[in-house]
């Protein structure tokens, strides 16, 4: 099968969408499929022999830390030359909206997926009310043109259905249980993340440092609990602001870590803390669990599908410092901590990228079948 993936984000960017896509491409290339990725031009020209057709990127004024590509007529020419059997529009908003437009114009079977809760993100960038309503109308317009629409959790599926988006299915979760594993525990890495405060509990956050991640909500916990140290792993538009905000607390900013360094960072912490309530899934939760970490997370629908309170993690009420403190206090129970660690790893072991990627491939075949059936 010839598969064209049109996406708003790809390598060398690091995020949950990219993680899902590179694992799907790896799996599908192993199955003998021919894949083309159309993405913002960030200097990468191929991945595992899958060609990346780069479209000129720009920095948006309210999000300057990464490149985005606007809708482009070049997508039509690229699709005409590649002649795909199916087009997958990933988060069709800017560039991927061109994937929707030209797949329809060229009569190519179209599937789309929703990974990012952009309407909720607007609230963190001073867009409100009417802007959110208009965005939902635009999202509906894009996804109504797709034969199949995919999303990442049951909670998000319900939200999308409430906005009349049709033909919805939930993607399976995936995680790399080999490279995210408790065996990567490293005393030197732990000491580095603790900045020498080796007597403290070590919490880590991994992800993009952006307003919607709500990392600032962790600071009051550090003020209230002097025995807690935090390592923030990642980068993004809010980094400088957060570094100033967390001055005077036991916090280390590492920037992005990759490969074995990131595996060591996960496995060397005591727990993973996740304050965001805007995620459509949160793949870093699964990476933490695969590394044997209990997850301390703010309550939200997608998070509750993964984190079970006092089984593989701890749930606190959003915007409630006392609730967060009470959750973290449970880490002092050594027996409970070890039980949650084991359960977290056990949960991750039920999940694989191969299973998730095969499901996605099955959806591609189904999209082609529906398209051909409708053409009879």
TrEMBL record:
A single GO molecular function, which one?
glycosyltransferase activity
One Pfam family assigned to this protein is Glyco_transf_4
Q: Which SUPFAM superfamilies match?
A: UDP-Glycosyltransferase/glycogen phosphorylase (SSF53756)
Annotated coiled-coil segments of the chain: none
User: Which top-level group of life is the source organism from?
Assistant: Bacteria
Could you tell me which residue ranges the Glycosyltransferase subfamily 4-like N-terminal domain spans?
15-177
Q: What are the residue boundaries of the Glycosyl transferase family domain, all occurrences included?
A: 197-346
Keywords for the protein's UniProt record, in alphabetical order: Transferase
In terms of InterPro entries, this protein maps to:
Glyco_trans_1 (IPR001296), Glyco_trans_4-like_N (IPR028098), Glycosyltransferase_grp1 (IPR050194)
Report the protein name in the record: Glycosyltransferase
């Amino acid at each position: 099968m010839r598969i064209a993936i049109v996406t708003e984000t790809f390598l060398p960017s690091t995020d949950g969408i990219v993680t899902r896509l590179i694992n799907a491409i790896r799996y599908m290339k192993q199955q003998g499929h021919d894949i083309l990725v159309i993405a913002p031009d960030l200097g990468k020209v191929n991945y595992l022999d899958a060609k990346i057709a780069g479209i000129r990127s720009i920095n948006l004024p309210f999000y300057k830390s990464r490149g985005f590509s606007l809708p482009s007529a070049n997508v039509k020419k690229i699709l005409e030359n590649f002649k795909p059997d199916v087009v997958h529009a990933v988060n069709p908003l800017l560039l991927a909206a061109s994937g929707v437009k030209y797949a329809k114009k060229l009569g190519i079977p179209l599937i789309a997926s929703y990974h990012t809760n952009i309407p909720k993100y607007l609230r963190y960038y001073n867009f409100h009310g009417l802007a959110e309503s208009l965005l939902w109308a635009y999202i509906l317009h894009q996804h109504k043109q797709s034969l199949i629409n995919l999303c990442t959790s049951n909670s998000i599926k319900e939200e999308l259905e409430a906005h009349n988006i049709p033909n919805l299915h939930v993607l399976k979760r995936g995680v790399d249980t080999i490279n995210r594993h408790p065996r990567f525990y490293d005393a030197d890495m732990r000491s580095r993340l603790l900045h020498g405060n080796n007597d403290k509990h070590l919490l880590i956050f991994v992800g993009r440092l952006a307003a919607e991640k709500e990392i600032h909500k962790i600071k009051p916990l550090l003020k209230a609990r002097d025995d807690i140290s935090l390592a923030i792993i990642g980068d993004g538009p809010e980094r400088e602001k957060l570094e100033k905000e967390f001055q005077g607390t036991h916090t280390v900013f590492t920037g992005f870590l990759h490969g074995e360094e990131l595996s060591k960072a996960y496995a060397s912490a005591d727990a993973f803390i996740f304050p965001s309530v805007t995620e459509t899934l949160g793949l870093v939760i699964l990476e933490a669990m695969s590394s044997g970490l209990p997850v301390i997370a703010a309550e939200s629908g997608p998070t509750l599908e993964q984190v079970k309170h006092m089984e593989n993690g701890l749930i606190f009420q959003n915007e409630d410092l006392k609730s967060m403190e009470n959750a973290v206090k449970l880490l002092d129970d050594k027996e409970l901590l070890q039980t949650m660690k084991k359960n977290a790893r056990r949960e991750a072991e039920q999940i694989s990228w191969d299973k998730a990627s095969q499901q996605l491939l099955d959806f591609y075949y189904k999209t082609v079948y529906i398209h051909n059936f409708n053409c009879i």
